[in-house]
Amino acid sequence: MELQSENNSGRIIIDPRSGFCSSNSIFYSKRKPHSLPPNHSLDVTTFISSCSHHGRIAFIDASTGQHITYQQLWRAVEAVTCSLSNMGIRKGDVILILSPNSIYFAVVCLSILSLGAIITTTNPLYTTREIAKQIADSKPVLAFTTSPLAPKINKASPTLPIILIESEDNSSNTVEKMMKEEPELSRVRERVNQDDIATLLYSSGTTGVSKGVISSHKNLIGMVQNIMVMFGKEQEEHGQTFICTVPMFHMYGLALFATGLLALGSTIVVLSKFEMHDMLSSIEKFRASFVPLVPPILVAMINNADAIKSKYDLSSLHSMFSAGAPLSKEVIEGFIEKYPNVTILQGYGLTETSGFGASTNCFEESRKYGTTGLLSSSTEAMIVDIDTAQPLAINQTGELWLRGPTIMKGYLRNEEATKSTLTSDGWLKTGDVCYIDSDGYLFVVDRLKELIKYKGYQVPPAELEALLLTHPAILDVAVIPYPDKEAGQIPMAYVVRKAGSSISEKQVIDYVAGQVAPYKKIRKVTFISFIPKNPSGKILRKDLVKLARAKL
C-alpha cells in the first residue's frame, strides 16, 4: 500500500511505513496533518481561548495551593491586556519577562501576545551583564519581573520601566492588581496577523553565539496544534494534571505551560523552581498524572528510587515526558525497572522549531529505545550528507533539516546567521546528526553544534571562550563538553597560559563564576601548550574532546 500526496510538481509517492518519498528524499510526518486556521487575522491568544474543552482549574501554585480557574484566566488576560494598552503598549513593542515560574507567568504572556506585542524572556539566573546584553539587542520598552529580581534590571537598564508580577508591597503596580481591574471595551485593538512576530527567545542555535529567535503567531499556533495532538487524547479521556518542573522562560516550558496545554483544558501545578522533594510531594498532593522534565531528573529518580517510593505516593503518575537531550537505553530500562507503571515519552525540538519537531506520544511508540519519536504533525524532514549536503535515505546518518509551520522566521538583525541556518525554500538546518529508520522514527546520533548540555541548559562554548580571553594571564582557550554522570555534560576549559603566568585551575574557575549564570560555570580546567585549530583558525574541538575522554 502506498500513500499519495501532492506537491508543486504533482503527485508524489510516500512509503506509509517510513514516511519517506524516494523521488524527493523528503520524510513526511506519519501523524494526522493539521491545517492552520484559515483566518489570517488571528493571534495565538485568541486561538487558544477559542479551543473548546471541559477544563476547570488552569493553574495551581504548588507552595500555597492558590489556583486560577479557566474563567478567571481569560478575564485576567483581558484585564491585563487593557492595562497594557492604556499604558501605550502597542503591536510590535518588545516586552521583557524576567521571572521564575509563576501562576501569573501565562497571564502576562497571553496578554502581551493578545496585543500583538512581542515576548522576550530571560533566565533569572543570568548576571546583570548577561541581561544587559539581551536588553541591548532586543530593545524592550517594558519589563515584567519580581521584587528580588528587579535590581538586576535596574542595573542592566536603569531607564527601563518595570511592572512587578507579584509583590508584598501593596503600593506597587503589580500584575495581581491589573488582573482585578475591570476590562475596558473601548481599548485600542490593532489587527494581529498570523505572520506577525510573537516571541523573541534567545538561543545559541547552531553556532554557539546567542541570537534572538523570531517566531510568529503562526509558528506558535502550529506548536499549540502539535501539543494538542501529543496530549489531547489522554486529556479528553481522563483529564490531565501536569507538574510544571521546567522553566517557563525556555521554549520547552513556554510551549507547554504558558500556552499549549491551556488549549486542552489541562491543570498545571506550578513549582517556582525545581526541587526534587517539591516535585514528588506535588505529584502526591495534587494527584498529578503527567510530568514533563529533563534527563538529569530521571537519572536522579532512578538512583534514589527505593527512598522515593517509600516516602511518596506516586500512584497517580502514569507518564513522564523527557526533552532536552536523548535518553540512553540504560536510563530508560533503569527507569522502567524502578517505576513499571510509568511510561516515558520523549521529544526533540529547538527554540528555532517553536517547540517539538518529533515526539513519542504513547506507550507503543516509547517502546522503541533510543528514538526521540515520529515527526510532529505537518512537519517534513531531510537527512543530508554533512560534507556534500546531498539528501540521504532511510537509515542513513547525516544532518537533520526540518520544514513546517513551526519553523522560525529567522534571527533578529542577523542576516548572516539566518541565511546559514534557513534555506531559501524553508528548511531549517538543525545542526544535529540524525537518522530516520524504516518505521519513520528519528534518532539523534550526535551534535554538529558545539553547545554543551548541562542539566538540560544550553551552554555556548564561544561565550565562555570570549570571556576567558579577557583574563590578562590567558593566551588562548577552548571550552568543550566533558561527560558527567549527574549533569550529562559539564563545561571544561583547555587553557594556554601567557608566558610567565602561573594562573591556577581555581583562579580560572572563579574568574568565570563571577560573571555568568551558575549553570555556565567552568567546572574543570586543563592547561595545554597550544589549542589545535584548522587552517582557517577554527578550534578543532573534536580533537580536544577525544583527548579529554582518553583520560577518563
Percentage of residues in helical conformation = 25-40%
Low-confidence stretches: 1-7
- CATH topology type of the largest domain: Rossmann fold
Number of strands: 29
Give the CA-based shape.
Answer: globular
* CATH homologous superfamily assignment of the largest domain: ANL, N-terminal domain
Oligomer kind? single chain
The span between the termini is: 51 Å
The tally of helices reads 17
Strand order in the largest sheet: 3-4-20-21-23-24-19-18-17-16-15
Count the domains: 3
**CATH-derived architecture of the largest domain:** 3-Layer(aba) Sandwich
What can you see in these coordinates?
This protein is α/β, with parallel strands linked by helices and 552 residues long. The protein has 3 domains: 3-36, no CATH class; 44-436, Rossmann fold; 453-550, 2-Layer Sandwich (GMP Synthetase, Chain A, domain 3), CATH 3.30.300. The protein has 17 helices and 29 strands. The strands form 7 sheets. The chain has an 11-stranded mixed beta sheet, with helices on both faces. A 4-stranded mixed beta sheet has the order 6-5-14-13. Strands 8-7-9-10 form a 4-stranded parallel beta sheet, with helices on both faces. A hairpin with a 3-residue loop joins strand 27 and strand 28 (488-497). Helix 3 (105-115) crosses helix 8, helix 4 (128-138) packs across helix 5 (150-156) and helix 10 crosses helix 12 (329-338). The termini are far apart. Residues 1-7 have low confidence and may be disordered.
